[in-house]
Amino acid sequence: MTPTQLIESVLKVTPSVLSGANIANEIAGHEICESTLGSFIKREADLWYSLLDSDYLKIQCIRDTYGIELCGALKNVVSVAAGIADGLGVGSNSKAAILRVGFKEMRQFIYHRFPYTPPEIFYESCGMADLVTSSLGGRNHKIAVELVKTGKSFAELESEMLGGQKLQGPMTAKELYIFNKHEGITEKFPLFTTVYQIGYEKKDPSEIFNVLVGLKLE
């Protein structure tokens, strides 16, 4: 279940969501950024828009919540993969290939789970923009770089570098692996699976690029 599904089941209300390339300290500094507001109820979307949209925080409204939530979760797994690529010292071409495959797997998984997700969410702030921001310098990316360079586990690096905070990427990769294995679709998500294996099964980080070698045209 996504967070809004859980809230719906317990509180019997329909929440809205806000997600995007929204690094907190940049918003606090009034740097211009965008965010995606997801809601199935137009009057609530209008209300949130009137409260949140400003000269520096620009809000786009989309009639969706579940897909937007999954974008916010899945991009953390891809940002781990991007961090692994940077930790290995590869160039922009290789990293771009990892991001492309990751973005593709994000879409595949979201449509597997929620087939009626509006396609525009992937090109709003909650989709591609959030993925790029997280993969350039988010904490999942930062810790993944150190995973490669130091050989330490995610748990060790969390303790040393995050002051008790937890990484979303590795935990999400584990949940994805469990879900996909249960659904019998693990082979459809080689990047997600490899991130899990590197983080939890001590797979060599360089094997992240094996997902590119076996790709076929569709």
Describe what you observe in this structure:
The protein folds into two domains: 3-62, no CATH class; 67-213, N-(1-d-carboxylethyl)-l-norvaline Dehydrogenase, domain 2 (Orthogonal Bundle). The two termini are 30 Å apart. The protein is globular and about 50 Å long. Strands 1-2-3 form a three-stranded mixed sheet, with helices on both faces. It has helices spanning 3-11, 24-28, 42-52, 66-87, 92-113, 125-137, 139-150, 154-161, 168-183, 190-200, 210-213, and strands spanning 17-19, 33-38, 57-62. It has eleven helices and three strands; from the N terminus they run H-E-H-E-H-E-H-H-H-H-H-H-H-H. With 218 residues, it is mostly helical. The mean pLDDT is 93.
Note the topology:
Blueprint: H1 3-11, E1 17-19, H2 24-28, E2 33-38, H3 42-52, E3 57-62, H4 66-87, H5 92-113, H6 125-137, H7 139-150, H8 154-161, H9 168-183, H10 190-200, H11 210-213
Parallel strand pairs: 2-3
Antiparallel strand pairs: 1-2
Helix pairs in contact: 4-5, 4-6, 4-7, 4-9, 6-7, 7-8, 9-10
GO molecular function, one term: glycerol-3-phosphate dehydrogenase (NAD+) activity
Organism: Smittium megazygosporum
Domain Glycerol-3-phosphate dehydrogenase NAD-dependent C-terminal: 64-209
Number of helices: 11
What's the name of the CATH homologous superfamily of the largest domain?
N-(1-d-carboxylethyl)-l-norvaline Dehydrogenase, domain 2
Cα-atom Rg, whole angstroms? Answer: 18 Å
The topology string of helices and strands comes to HEHEHEHHHHHHHH
Provide the helix percentage: 55-70%
Cα-to-Cα separation, first versus last residue: 30 Å
Low-confidence runs: none
Helix and strand composition category: mainly alpha
Neighbour order of strands in the largest sheet? 1-2-3
Shape estimate: globular
Q: Determine the CATH topology of the largest domain.
A: N-(1-d-carboxylethyl)-l-norvaline Dehydrogenase, domain 2
What is the CATH first-level class name of the largest domain? Mainly Alpha
Number of domain modules: 2
The average pLDDT score comes to: 93
Number of strands: 3
Q: Please describe the biggest sheet, giving its number of strands, its sense, and whether it closes into a barrel.
A: 3 strands, mixed
CATH architecture of the largest domain: Orthogonal Bundle
Report the β-strand fraction as a percent range: 5-15%
